[in-house]
Amino acid sequence: MAKLDLHCHSTASDGALPPAELVARAAARGSRMLALTDHDCTAGLALARQAAEQAGLDLINGVEISVSWQKRAVHIVGLDINPDCPALVAGLHSVREGRVERARRMGEALAKIGIHGAFDGALQRCGNPEMIGRTHFARFLVDSGEVKNVAAVFRKYLVKGKPGYVAHEWATLADAVSWIRQAGGIAVIAHPGRYEIGRMLMEQLVEDFKAVGGEAIEVVSASHTLDQSHKFALLAARMELLASAGSDFHAPGEGGRDVGLTANLPPICVPVWSRFSPPRATPSAD
Ligand code: AMP
Ligand code: MN
Ligand code: MN
Ligand code: MN
Prior knowledge:
Blueprint: E1 4-5, H1 19-28, E2 33-36, H2 45-55, E3 58-69, E4 72-79, H3 86-112, H4 118-124, H5 134-143, H6 150-158, H7 173-182, E5 186-189, H8 199-211, E6 216-221, H9 226-238, E7 242-246
Parallel strand pairs: 1-2, 2-3, 5-6, 6-7
Antiparallel strand pairs: 3-4, 4-5
């Protein structure tokens, strides 16, 4: 395992652990480099940095921006960003603005099928109310005994075609990548294996992403099987993208991988951290 993790969430978005606890957990598990990549929000980074200094962990400033591309939601991670960059700050603010309104509509949609109080329930579970999202609704529905776990709530209620799903317009791909670049960061296509698109559309996504200045793709992700990691390693090499690795950890016991360590990148990959400023070597297992 590589002692690094470049994708995870805190209570600043839809993670369950406050930034300092998340960092301490990653360090205790042997991580040496960690990027906190909360959705559409960098508010957790300052607390994470204090904790990282105490733990001797290399904290990379990150974010995961929600994008609409060809009528689908696509997530773009920004790594090694300056969170104070005005263009990034304003851009993320604009993405967050729509969330509360969308959540109200989700609450109304769920009420129509007899599930009441979902908006308030989701809001109570937010560390950061302006970041209210589907995960908070899912946790409310699990706690109320409606469904057994978060993944099942998504399948039953919260994905396209299900009663609690509400369409929403996120940032454009060009804007998201531009904010990340203006903030001095590297844009990364998050968990490409999660998008239900075929080979042609995936190549189109990579081409559109590169055309606006995108540079990297997640090869290793908890959302990927080993086969998918190899497939995306080959895609990265062929389309000249840097490779990233992250757990996308949200909460203990919610499925997926724990925070801190990730599988090694296939040797064909050029690691995204070799382009951080300053460049980092791979902190690998002893
Ligand atoms: P939102 O940004 O509010 O649309 O919520 C997106 C978040 O929901 C993702 O970042 C994941 O944390 C979570 N999510 C999306 N799809 C699923 C799924 N099928 N199972 C569990 N969690 C999911
Ligand atoms: Mn999430
Ligand atoms: Mn994501
Ligand atoms: Mn994520």
